[in-house]
Amino acid sequence: MNVPLSAGLVAAAILGSLAGARLAHRINEKALRRSFGWFVLAMGVFVLTQELPAPAGIAVLAVAGAASLLGTSCLVMPNCRLALRAARS
User: Fold this and answer.
1) What is the widest separation between alpha-carbon atoms in the chain?
2) Per-position DSSP letters for the chain, written without gaps between them
3) Residue 86 has pLDDT above 80, yes or no
4) What distance in Å separates the CA atoms of residue 81 and residue 50, rounded to the nearest whole number?
5) Which of 6, 12, 29, 49 could potentially form a cystine with 57 if both were Cys, beta carbons 3.0 to 4.6 Å apart?
6) Taking the complete model, does pTM exceed 0.85, yes or no?
7) What integer is the mean pLDDT of 54-71?
8) What is the chain's alpha carbon radius of gyration, rounded to the nearest angstrom?
9) How far apart are CA 18 and CA 43, in angstroms?
10) How many CA atoms does the CB half-sphere of 46 hold within 13 Å?
């Protein structure tokens, strides 16, 4: 067992939970859920690109990058159909 690594993870978890408890009432719950969802999606794409062989991993990364650019550009476009659908649901 790697004691320094375990101790570092435990310390980071304790500090993170204390910081989270202080910030919990200041952050919009819907924004927090959405941000966490994007984070999980990004981490999933990252892990997938690391596990797949080189050509497939690059293809997955390219598709994910294009999708994220499309989604981000929809945030600033006033008549984006994707943004309108997301706002209704």
Assistant:
1) 55
2) --HHHHHHHHHHHHHHHHHHHHHTTTS-HHHHHHHHHHHHHHHHHHHHHHHS-HHHHHHHHHHHHHHHHHHHHHHH-TT-HHHHHHHH-
3) no
4) 33
5) 49
6) no
7) 78
8) 18
9) 24
10) 6
